[in-house]
Known about the structure:
The protein has helices at residues 11-24, 34-47, 53-61, 67-77, 88-108, 124-136, 154-162, 175-181, 194-197, 236-248, 340-346, 349-353, 360-369, 373-386, 391-403, 407-420, 425-437, 441-456, 472-484; strands spanning 112-118, 144-151, 164-165, 182-184, 190-192, 200-204, 222-226, 250-257, 272-276, 279-283, 292-295. By secondary structure, the chain is an alpha/beta fold. It has an eight-stranded mixed beta sheet with strand order 6-2-1-7-8-10-9-11, with helices on both faces. A three-stranded antiparallel beta sheet has the order 3-5-4.
Amino acid sequence: xxxxxxxxxxxxxxxxxxxxxxxxxGLHFPRERWRDLERGIAAASxxxxxxxxxxxxxxxxxxxxxxxxxESLACQLTVGETYFFRERRSLEILEQQILPELLRAxxxxxxxxxxxxxxxxxxxxxxxIAMLLDRLIPDVEKWNLTIxxxxxxxxxxxxxxxGVYGEWSFRDTPAWIRERYFAGREDxxxxxxxxxxxxVSFSYLNxxxxxxxSLVNNTNAMDLILCRNxxxxxxxxxxxxxxxxxxRSLVDGGWLITSPxxxxxxLFSAFTAVEFPGAILYRRMAASGLSTVAVRRQSPWYQxxxxxxxxxxPAAPAETGAFSVVxxxxxxxxxxxxxxxxxxxxxxxDSRKHDDRETPLxxxxxxxxxxxxxxxxxWCEKAIAADKLNPAHYYLLAAIEQERGQSEKAEHxxxxxxxxxxxxxxxxxxxxxxxxxxxRRREAQRHFGNALTLLRACPANTLLPESDGLSAGRxxxxxASVQASMPRAHKEPAA
Length: 495
Ligand SMILES: C[S@@+](CC[C@H](N)C(=O)[O-])C[C@H]1O[C@@H](n2cnc3c(N)ncnc32)[C@H](O)[C@@H]1O
């Protein structure tokens, strides 16, 4: 039996550190978890070259954390517990009710579905969703599917992107999943099929701190968000804030799935709670603001759709679009140039929708945020007609076109934006991402290089125009991480 060592760091220091981590990283360490905290912080201090954890903590506490410090802490202090088809009941409900209903509605309009696994760990959760969609959609290649998977721990994300797993990731997974979707490797691990791997886009996002919903990071207009076994690590105030932002990232009728251990009538009071046999899921409904609990009768699946006491309306067949891995960088936010996330929070999307004083640009943005792309396009065209020389208009147009799957048009619109404003760093970045997703890596590098030059010329905390409160420093880090993950371009013909 392993012998637990006594906690060596003083209580007062651990308490200060716990408060600091809660406010800066959103990681919650109540006293019962101080042993985990101590273990993680000891590892993080070694990684940062400190022989003494205490000295490392003092260094951390001395100033606001840098992104590098946050990532290093996240790697040591987060819990990587996950496996394929975990909490199977929720996934069965998805497979048997929610997704078929959504797919039926979308088959009539544009074939789009947008799903976000928030706190995806090493990828088992979003890949499970990709497998569900693969099983449900016979003509999957005709659909525009987005499965965005984000996490705060870059090591988990790297493992996820590789798609190679050991036995432990299948510990409570039906055997046929591994047989159908994985290939065994010589070393005994299993590699996910490339076509399933390509269905998921992984990226870094700190739920406690980063801006969302946002076109910048592709977290808008989601049909379904899975945020399971993540909220339990946040203090209540932080969890409340995260849940509110996740709600705003959903389209009307969109679903939030948490772990059964995380259900709460208080925390999810802005949602409609829908009770299925064996699980409660949360739904964003247009008029809900009160906790309306819709209870579905406990009936077995073979009896068809369960009845609802307050049956929620079926998901509106909202027209949504899918960004590819990198197109999330098409990042227009015409509304919140200076206030960033705070301004965004203060201005609830629901009330914006009904504001008659809104300009065509604001209306275009609101529609795009909510996934109503045809309307967004109409408003954007009106904005351009009123002011043809505004680069922001073309930037938003590019985002909408990209979301509609019209990459060439989007490139053209970004070209217009850059013609009007050559120093438009976000447009360079977006163009780089478009080139990258088209396989034109050298061209992509050129655009990233342009963006980097512009960003390095301004103070790191400068908020970028047309972004969701994104700072120049943060975009520098994002571009660096995109470049680091790029394959070498030596075989590509010169652009
Ligand atoms: C226990 S795992 C859950 C994985 C998966 N959702 C599941 O249920 O199997 C928790 C994940 O949340 C991530 N996480 C913790 N704090 C986070 C934050 N502030 N922002 C984003 N992800 C976070 C951790 O890195 C970890 O991968």
